[in-house]
Design a protein that fits this description.
The structure holds 2 protein chains of 2 kinds. Helix content of chain A is 34%, strand content 14%. By secondary structure, chain A is an alpha+beta fold. Chain A has 2 domains: 76 residues, Beta-grasp domain (Ubiquitin-like (UB roll)), CATH 3.10.20; 69 residues, [2Fe-2S]-binding domain (DNA polymerase, domain 1, Orthogonal Bundle). Chain A has a 5-stranded mixed beta sheet with strand order 2-1-5-3-4. In chain A, helix 3 packs across helix 6. The longest helix of chain A has 15 residues. By secondary structure, chain B is α+β, with helices and mostly antiparallel strands. Chain B folds into 3 domains: 148 residues, Aldehyde oxidase/xanthine dehydrogenase, molybdopterin binding domain (Aldehyde Oxidoreductase, domain 4, 2-Layer Sandwich), CATH 3.30.365.10; 175 residues, Aldehyde Oxidoreductase, domain 3, CATH 3.90.1170; 310 residues, Aldehyde oxidase/xanthine dehydrogenase, molybdopterin binding domain (Aldehyde Oxidoreductase, domain 4). In chain B, the strands form 8 sheets. A 7-stranded mixed beta sheet of chain B has the order 3-7-1-14-11-12-13, with helices on both faces. The radius of gyration of chain B is 27 Å and the shape is globular. Chain B starts with 16 loop residues before the first helix and ends in a 10-residue tail after the last helix. The chains are: A alpha+beta, B alpha+beta. The interface between A and B is large, with 61 and 57 residues.
Chain lengths: 165, 767
């Protein structure tokens, strides 16, 4: 079937098998391999993307569900080689280890911060509780989100970690 | 160690974070190509059977199916294994566990692959299985491998020091207990993946998520009948491994597929259920402990029997159990010791490496024994540990004199002075209604590197490129722990370069040098030591070359700065890209090697010989138990660690926090349940790993006493913290409500049922 949607700012019209999973379409047809698959059944959050600004699991979405939607993947979060404040914070505050959960985690946090721009640590933990990470113990992810939220609220873009942690 | 250091001891964000956080980093699963064939396997799904026939004929007719292969298509030995070649690439005579691969399919797309695999059937004659390690040792037990001369024993390891036979008679107090720990699944987010092809020179190129590229070739080549020199492994960053990719996962299958792909590339990527079904697990264990002490709390005798369920294939199970035996007495001086350990074949999932390598199992037991003993002789749990922890110069339980940095006591001292220890009674007294609060501690030790029989060697390589860039060739895989970034930090320190100004080559059997596995808390220690020497050699070569270009100058008058050499007396600068032009091809690269120190002359003490360098830790946990549901919640966690000097505080904390999170999962939730060889927890919906709601804020304090043999004074930090949470939490649960559950994990239902059976709760009467 023909599906029309916006992907990372570009209008896309494709003829596609409506049963294909969105995670596969992104990775295989558009080479957007930043969207990861960790379980294929909606348990790990690695494949999180934004659909009309809200976080969704691309392993549970089928091609037909793309129709008319605006899709953002990790590659489209900060185009033109720039980085989103959140990405800067993840780097500076050590929130990235193996990195396989990272793109999905970042996308989930974008959604969280759009709904709650000033989350406390507990709210951050709740907000990312659908995204599994096996490396970090989550603490540095929470640190990064906390810092990024403050910076974004203050209109700052750059993040610099002056601390030791 | 180096007060003027620009980079060592400083938090430097990881080199790999930028490409990972932007989604640009390509993992093994991230490669697709026009000519790719998908490849996958039919899994046995039954635990023990004679394989009679495999029906693949009709499957070959399914549209999109390119080939269907069985063991008959394997031209080599069809056997791999690190220590014993007991694991088939594709099952032939027998099926040994549910995860065995029976047939391999190559297909144009995943849908065809799925349909083909579904339609493969095989005839088999079911065999009774053996599923418990102690049962497997009994006379007349079902043999898992008939050709094993020792029945179902993969390895038996006895350790004896002093006079354990009579020593218990000399004790004033003896305590005994049995502990069982569960099978743990690694659950790395990146499931097993890779792709392969034969290049124009006839080399088999495998791009794969593995911790052991150089060693893998020794397994792939004979199994498939290939020349080892013609196997080329390329290893991107791994999306987590924790031991689960220490050895063969997809490699042999990819090689076999590439041999039958008609020259096309082949891609394999296990889904989560296949990963759970086929991957190795932390070995479950049953451990019988007996510990004796003098009246003043001085440990005197230890006896234990360890039964480790190795599952269907040896993997490194015997070696894991051996490290467990070596650590059975944890960080304590015990003069009389008898440890007997068995790693045993069963028809369960294969046991293999997992962060801690046998040590978390025995530490869980030994550290509970310490609390049980302390209670019996009415001694404070911290004091009895302080009294018995090994100090530098002491002999450990194996009789090895600890000549390297030994900070167990210092860890306990810092813990004892921490507000969380001092304030514990106040906190406990504030428990609300239907709540019980408890505080537990645990000590731990973890040996670094390989045992003496396997030299722990790394070969570092560093280059000034034609363009004048410094390029570090990482010989050891970065599975997510960040060792590759630390290599850049080390090279940058010596060569005065910014981490992001250098280039990094990830492990590649053609380009980087063999440097051993990414495991055993060794990656920064061994390779880092080699790299320091190689980088220093490159530095002097660059300074000499620069001085030869400045008439009348000496190398000692030149210094390195970012991207250039500066002649101090004149201030004249030579940019690296100019300097590089004067390097002959043969001069660009510097290599050096390092071998980890070992104990000499004691190899008869334990299989493969004993270790000499250990990291240490002391953990403290506050837990709160909901007396109505049995749920244990972690409220505070303190980890004090002796892993030498800290090279990068952020990377160090990542290791401590991550290991503790996995340890908390191991203690409270994670139990890869297998009944009759069949998994009852086949996915992430049924096998629960910690979420952000299950992990506490962790306070990490390093004891930076320094290890003289370590690069910039460091020791391994990757595994040490894994062993603390289970015993600390078990001790805290006892402290909260007087129950000790012999079989972990300590789930809410187990705690609740233990509470209801516990006639005399000792500290939660108010609950």
């Amino acid at each position: 079937m023909k599906v029309e949607f916006v992907l990372n700012g570009s209008r896309i019209v494709i003829d596609i098998d409506p049963d294909r999973r969105v995670v596969d379409i992104l990775r295989e047809d558009f080479q957007l391999t930043g969207t990861k698959e960790g379980c294929g059944s909606g348990e790990c959050g690695s494949c999180t993307i934004l659909v009309d600004g809200e976080s969704r699991l691309s392993c549970l979405m089928l091609a037909a569900q793309l129709e008319g939607k605006t899709i953002t993947t990790i590659e489209g979060l900060a185009p033109d080689g720039k980085m989103h404040t959140l990405q800067e914070a993840f780097i500076e505050y050590g929130a990235v280890q193996c990195g396989f959960c990272t793109p999905g985690m970042v996308m989930a946090v974008v959604d969280l911060l759009s709904k709650n721009p000033s989350p406390d640590r507990q709210e951050i933990r709740e907000g990312i509780s659908g995204n599994l990470c096996r490396c970090t113990g989550y603490q540095k992810i929470v640190d990064a989100v906390e810092v990024a939220a403050k910076a974004m609220k203050n209109g700052e873009w750059r993040i610099k970690n002056d601390g030791e942690g | 160690m180096n007060n003027t250091s620009e980079k060592i001891g400083k938090t430097i964000p990881r080199f790999d974070a930028v490409t990972k956080v932007t989604g640009r980093e390509r993992y093994a699963a991230d490669y697709y190509g026009e000519d790719f064939l998908w490849t996958g396997v039919k899994r046995a799904g039954i635990p023990h059977a004679l394989l009679k026939a495999i029906h693949t004929g009709k499957v070959r007719d399914i549209p999109g199916v390119a080939a269907v292969l069985t063991h008959e298509d394997v031209k080599g030995t069809n056997r791999y294994g690190i220590i014993r070649k007991d694991e088939p690439v594709l099952a032939d005579k027998k099926i040994h566990h549910c995860g065995d691969a029976v047939a391999l399919v190559l297909a144009e797309d995943r849908e065809a692959l799925r349909r083909a695999i579904e339609n493969i059937s095989f005839d088999y004659e079911p065999l009774p299985g053996v599923f418990d390690p102690e049962e497997a040792l009994k006379e007349g037990a079902i043999p898992v491998h008939e050709d094993n001369s020792e029945g179902n024993v993969i390895r038996y390891v006895p350790v004896e020091t002093g006079n354990p036979g009579s020593a218990f008679n000399e004790c004033d107090t003896v305590v005994e207990a049995v502990f069982e720990v569960p099978r743990q699944e690694h659950a790395y987010l990146e499931t097993e993946a890779g792709w392969a092809h034969f290049d124009k020179d006839g080399q088999l190129v495998i791009v794969v998520a593995t911790q052991t590229p150089f060693r893998d070739r020794f397994e792939i080549a004979p199994a498939l009948g290939l020349d080892m020199e013609k196997i080329h492994l390329v290893v991107p960053y791994l999306g987590g491994a924790f031991g689960g990719k220490d050895g063969i996962t997809v490699q042999c299958l990819l090689g076999l597929a590439a041999l039958h792909s008609g020259g096309r590339s082949v891609k394999m990527w296990w889904d989560r259920q296949e990963s759970f079904l086929a991957s190795v697990k932390r070995l479950p264990a049953r451990m019988y402990y007996r510990l004796g002490a003098k009246g003043d709390g001085t440990l005197h005798a230890l006896e234990c029997r360890l039964y480790f369920d190795g599952g269907a294939y040896a993997s490194l199970g015997g070696e894991i159990m051996t490290l467990a035996a070596e650590h059975a007495g944890s960080a304590y001086r015990i003069p009389h010791v008898s440890i007997k350990g068995w790693c045993v074949y069963t028809n369960n999932p294969v046991g293999g490496p997992f962060r801690g390598f046998g040590v978390p199992q025995v530490t869980a037991a030994m550290e509970q024994m310490m609390d049980i003993l302390a209670l019996k002789i009415k001694m404070d749990p911290l004091e009895i540990r302080k009294k018995n922890t090994v100090r530098r110069g002491d002999k450990n339980c194996l009789g090895v004199t600890l000549t390297h940095s030994t900070g167990a006591g210092e860890c306990l001292k810092v813990l004892s002075e921490h507000p969380l220890w001092k304030g514990k009674d106040t906190w406990k007294a504030l428990a609300g209604p239907f709540e019980a609060r408890g505080v537990g501690i645990a000590c731990m030790a973890h040996a670094m590197g390989y045992p003496p029989m396997v030299p722990d060697v790394a070969n570092a390589k560093i280059e000034i490129t034609e363009e004048g860039k410094i390029r570090v060739y990482a010989g050891v895989v970065d599975m997510g722990q960040g060792n590759a970034s630390t290599y850049l930090q080390i090279a940058g320190e010596i060569l005065s370069q910014g981490v992001t100004d250098m280039e990094l080559v990830l492990p590649d059997t053609e380009r980087t040098l063999p440097s051993g596995s990414s495991s055993a808390s060794r990656t920064t220690y061994t390779y880092g030591n080699a790299l320091i020497k190689a980088a220093a050699a490159l530095k002097s070569r660059m300074l000499e070359k620069a001085s030869s270009l400045i008439p009348g100058s000496g190398a000692e008058e030149c210094i390195l700065a970012e991207g250039r050499v500066i002649h101090k007396p004149t201030g004249k600068e030579i940019p690296f890209h100019d300097l590089a032009l004067f390097f002959d091809e043969s001069e660009r690269v510097c290599t050096d090697t390092f071998t980890m120190p070992v104990v000499k002359g004691m190899n008869d003490v334990i299989y493969m010989g004993p270790h000499i360098i250990y990291s240490y830790g002391a953990h403290l946990v506050y837990i709160e138990i909901d007396m109505l549901t049995g749920k244990a919640e972690i409220k505070q966690y303190l980890a004090v660690t002796d892993a030498g000097k800290v090279i990068n505080p952020q990377a160090y904390e990542q290791q401590i926090q991550g290991a503790i999170a996995q340890g908390i999962g191991y203690a409270l939730h994670e139990d890869y349940k297998v009944e009759g060889g069949v998994s009852r927890t086949p996915d992430l919906a049924s096998y629960i790993i910690p979420t952000s709601m299950d992990t506490p804020e962790i306070i990490s304090i390093p004891i930076e006493m320094g290890e003289e043999s370590g690069p910039f004074g460091m020791k391994g930090v990757g595994e040490i913290a894994m062993s603390g949470p289970m015993p600390a939490i078990a001790n805290a649960i006892y402290d909260a409500c007087g129950i000790r559950i012999s079989r972990s994990p300590y789930t809410a239902d187990k705690i609740l049922s233990a509470l209801s059976y516990n006639e005399k709760p000792e500290s939660c009467d108010e609950g």
